[in-house]
Amino acid sequence: MTLRIIATGGTFDKHYNELNGVLGFADSHLPEVIARSRMTIPVELQVVSLLDSLDMQDADRRNVLAACQAAGEKQIVIVHGTDTMRETAEVLGAAMSDKTIVFTGAMIPYKFGSSDGLFNLGSALAFVQTLPNGVYIAMNGKCFNWNNVRKNKQTGMFEELG
Amino acid sequence: MTLRIIATGGTFDKHYNELNGVLGFADSHLPEVIARSRMTIPVELQVVSLLDSLDMQDADRRNVLAACQAAGEKQIVIVHGTDTMRETAEVLGAAMSDKTIVFTGAMIPYKFGSSDGLFNLGSALAFVQTLPNGVYIAMNGKCFNWNNVRKNKQTGMFEELG
Amino acid sequence: MTLRIIATGGTFDKHYNELNGVLGFADSHLPEVIARSRMTIPVELQVVSLLDSLDMQDADRRNVLAACQAAGEKQIVIVHGTDTMRETAEVLGAAMSDKTIVFTGAMIPYKFGSSDGLFNLGSALAFVQTLPNGVYIAMNGKCFNWNNVRKNKQTGMFEELG
Amino acid sequence: MTLRIIATGGTFDKHYNELNGVLGFADSHLPEVIARSRMTIPVELQVVSLLDSLDMQDADRRNVLAACQAAGEKQIVIVHGTDTMRETAEVLGAAMSDKTIVFTGAMIPYKFGSSDGLFNLGSALAFVQTLPNGVYIAMNGKCFNWNNVRKNKQTGMFEELG
After folding, report:
1. Which of B7, B71, C51, D113 could form a disulfide with C9 if both were Cys (CB 3.0 to 4.6 A apart)?
2. Partner-chain contact C36 D138, CB within 8 Å
3. DSSP strand pairing (B100-104 vs B75-79)
């Protein structure tokens, strides 16, 4: 069995550009993160985009969907910005039913000492191995169905719908 | 629902004593780790011991068992040294059948920049929510049944029995 | 003898706001940095401002000057953004001749794992104890007179004037 | 002008061996540290030994002396364990008078998140550029003459002799 990790960008992968002081993107940190995790299950990493999720367009979400459809693996973790994670999860939730797909991300960039990214990735890689086919969002130790979750803008946390 | 995390010590919680240069134990790092993870599920932390797992005696393992039996929670993660993680898991595996208990730990102390501890804890907290009752070991993204796992001393990695 | 450290903001003290994803300012990190350095010389910390140095106005630079003039200490380190560090150093250089004042900062925020801030602060605190009265900029292990330095925008590094 | 950095081991360079849990030595971290510091002055790094300073013998100290005598640079920083830093400084202090040599080290290994090593190295590299010929110990922001310093075993701090 092999797992697929799809990188799309988001806070997890933000990079500090020291020449202009902007927090943007360079290379994905995921190769380093995967090495550090010492994953013993084979992992295939695919960088589909490196975008702030507020900048993602419909075409970007379709690219994520296409990557999931083309994947040989049945278990896929998608690292994504939290602001529109639910929107991309909706696109996949409506179209995919034969794989387990878990979205995750970070509130603090991985390269900050206090990042929650490594914790979230660890939990997503566990949820994806144990949950039935479907599309999920895993953040802060909790896993939600794609159609029963929203990001609370005040707290920054994900929560179930009313 | 509430999760219980039981600390027993191990590499995860090792502390560097700057006065004598010894890597031992002071307070558990788990309160800080739990805060950093931004867990939204309530977590009850219980420090049963702070020991190198090579120093654990039968009485220490029975204390871990007693803590699991006394716990009101049905889902328990145990942070434990890797060297005798399997031995303690055996004690619990033989005695507990009505809860989901997941052991985890770290190859590198949490306070080192390159620690795998946060990743392992994230995965353990996900496995414990999704697996049926039983006793498991979750390390490096993979989850093993307590009676089908060993630590490979050459590689430092956990693997299934032949 | 006591040293004074004046915080003005800059990349060194940038804080990641996880609710809106903006790299701005909250509390100064310098109390934590000073504790970590285990400085045995008494240090007086004064937060004059917490500004991106591109946002500093003439009045802000005059506040820094006033703080230096009012200080009882003869040795002052100023943590400042690199983009206009030279401009503030000019204001002080033209007005102060009875103290040793060393500007320093960081190319990468202190809270990033790879920050150069701690190194720069260590060097500035050493230069300030050993150089004669005057105003200096210490970055990346090198110390410049305030009137013979510029930031190279291409490399991000400070260098002597032609 | 070029600076020389001589590595001898010590807490600064301690490495955690994840296979046996021992804090010992592998490669020096100094190449990474020098890159992170963005030093603009050319630096020549020489690894003379990688030893806990409690394990250093007379021959090891003579090797450090020989390296200093053979160096083309007039300014040398020596990264050394704190426990016998003073003893090696004595060997050099008695024999060297034509160079500026500054010993430094760390209370916490560089690879720990909370290490003071980067701060100490920054200060040592500044002291070495500004102090007259002689042998010094720079720790925790303060610089001592080699013949007027001891490590206080209770506090772990360096202090002047009564």
Report:
1. C51
2. no
3. parallel
Separation of alpha carbons C86 and C89, rounded Å:
5
Separation in Å, CA of B86 to nearest CA in chain D:
17
The position carrying tokens 């990349």 is: C11
Chain A residues with CB inside 8 Å of B158's CB?
40
Helix or strand (DSSP H, E) at A94: helix A85-95
Taking CA atoms, what residue in D is nearest to C131?
D130
- Angle made by CA atoms C132, C138, D151, in degrees to the nearest 5: 75
Q: Return the closest-CA partner of residue B60 out of B26, B95, B31, B84.
A: B84
Check: pTM over 0.90? Answer yes or no.
yes
Question: What is the SS3 assignment for chain D?
Answer: CCEEEEEEECHHHCEEECCCCEEECCCCCHHHHHHHHCCCCCEEEEEEEEECHHHCCHHHHHHHHHHHHHCCCCEEEEECCCCCHHHHHHHHHHHCCCCEEEEECCCCCCCECCCCHHHHHHHHHHHHHHCCCEEEEEECCEEEECCCCEECCCCCCEECCC
**Per-residue model confidence as pLDDT tens digits over D91-122:** 999 999 999 999 999 999 999 989 999 999 99
Number of Cβ within 10 Å of residue A58's Cβ equals 9
Report d(CA C157, CA B87) in Å as an integer. Answer: 56
ipTM of this complex prediction, to 2 decimal places:
0.97
**Strands D22-24 vs D15-17: parallel, antiparallel or unpaired:** antiparallel
The amino acid that residue D65 corresponds to is L
Chain B contact partners (≥3 CB pairs within 8 A): A, D
Q: Does D152 touch chain B (CB under 8 A)?
A: no
Cβ–Cβ contact B108 with D under 8 A: yes
Q: Which residue bears the tokens 């990079």?
A: A15
Expressed in angstroms, the distance from the first to the final Cα of chain B is: 37
What pairs with residue D143 in β-bridges?
Answer: D138
Q: Which of A21, A52, A109 sits opposite C11 (nearest CB)?
A: A21
What is the bridge-based pairing of β-strands B22-24 and C142-145?
unpaired
Is B124 touching A (CB cutoff 8 A)? yes
Q: Which whole-number Å values give the CA distances from D17 to B106, D14, D24, in the listed order?
A: 12, 10, 7
Q: Cβ–Cβ of A16/C109 closer than 8 Å? A: yes
Query: pLDDT tens for residues B90-128?
Result: 999 999 999 999 999 999 999 998 999 999 999 999 999
Q: Which two tokens stand for residue C139?
A: 């970055």
CA dist., res. D64 & res. D8, Å (int): 8
Long-range contacts of D129-132 (CB under 8 A, 24+ apart): D129/C143, D129/D3, D129/D41, D129/D75, D130/C126, D130/C127, D130/C130, D130/C131, D130/C143, D131/C130, D131/D100, D131/D102, D132/D100
CA distance B115 to chain A (A): 7
Q: In A, which residues are within 8 Å of B126 by CB distance? A: 122-127, 130, 138, 141, 143
Q: Model confidence over A27-66: pLDDT tens digits?
A: 999 999 999 999 999 999 999 999 999 999 999 999 999 9
Instruction: Specify whether the backbone of C55 is left (phi greater than 0), alpha (psi in -120 to 50) or beta.
Output: alpha
Distance between CA atoms of A162 and B7, rounded to whole angstroms?
35
One-letter amino acid of A59: A
Closest CA to D56 of D80, D78, D25, D79: D80
Q: Is A73 left (phi over 0), alpha (psi -120 to 50) or beta?
A: beta
Cα–Cα dist D36/C118, whole Å: 11
Angle in degrees, CA B65, B68, B71, rounded to 5 = 150
